[in-house]
Amino acid sequence: MRARRALLYMPGDDLRKIRKATTLKVDCVCLDLEDGVAANRKPEARATLAAALQELDFGGSERLARINPLGSGLEAEDLAAALAGRPDGIVIPKVEDAEPVRWASAQIEAVERKNSWPVGAIQLIVLVETARGIVNLPQIARAGERLQALIFGAEDLAGDIGALRTPEAWEVFYARSAVVTHAAAYGLQAIDMVYIDFKDLPGLVQEATQGAQLGFAGKQVIHPDQVEPVQTAFTPGAAAIAYALRVVEASRQHQADGFGAFALDGKMIDAPVVKAAERVLARARAAGKIA
Ligand code: COA
Ligand code: MG
User: Fold this and answer.
1) Does 74 share its domain with 128?
2) What is the pLDDT of residues 182-226, one digit of tens each?
3) Which is deepest, 39, 76, 124, 192, by most CB within 10 Å?
């Protein structure tokens, strides 16, 4: 699976920010039609987004478009405009059950067939950010083949459950952790919440590090200054990579000698520790840190 360490949003009607995004080395660029765009600017944003996806070169960044949620009355036109730009993937917000994934998958397939594009290539990523979305995570996580990742939305969730946001984010911890767990259970990536205080980089790094520790593969970001610190927080460091390589190699040797558990640097190593080391290496590989 590709690296999605930082997923940078920008309003779909803001060509200046979209152009700026083409110059940033960010894993994912997400042109937004939802909450980043004023209600009276949706048609303008659709046109700008489609033209930008068609004409601009985003380099190695994944090109994503976020549509409005199902039931908003905006979703069909949003999706049609986004698909006109042949994005790498579509992001659907406020998903509460399997239906949005099924609906979008069918719409995308029709467009892929009409254009003779490879069927199944355009991917889906969904935001789970309501109480209903959290309790329905099992059905959402297995809603369709195109689904690649689950994004956790803390601001919307807090509003939905009546929680008051705190810097420690304990009020959303159950939901945040549920998203990672369900993503892992169904082979998806999990992408963590936005840190809205974009001037506070130490706070951002702290929250991103916590997200990486919880098992998230990346984090949503809203400002160019957040990209580099977040991508670094979700990239295994040199020491972590070196240790993971030692664990995997020592395990291979001990398995050959008939030992499942052994000691390395005074710590017990067995299958789950080796599995965790392999995950570190997979992330390092996706980030281009090792071959
Ligand atoms: N993507 C790309 N470029 C961005 C950007 C973004 N999300 N946010 C800011 N920039 C650009 C600005 O255009 C500016 O570029 P310039 O120097 O060429 O003019 C530069 O980065 C510095 O921006 P700054 O002045 O610090 O921020 P701002 O006050 O212009 O904007 C926000 C602050 C929060 C409004 C802006 O970051 C933003 O729109 N973020 C995304 C909002 C969004 O999409 N929300 C919905 C999803 S949660
Ligand atoms: Mg939201």
Assistant:
1) yes
2) 999 999 999 999 999 999 999 999 999 999 999 999 999 999 999
3) 192
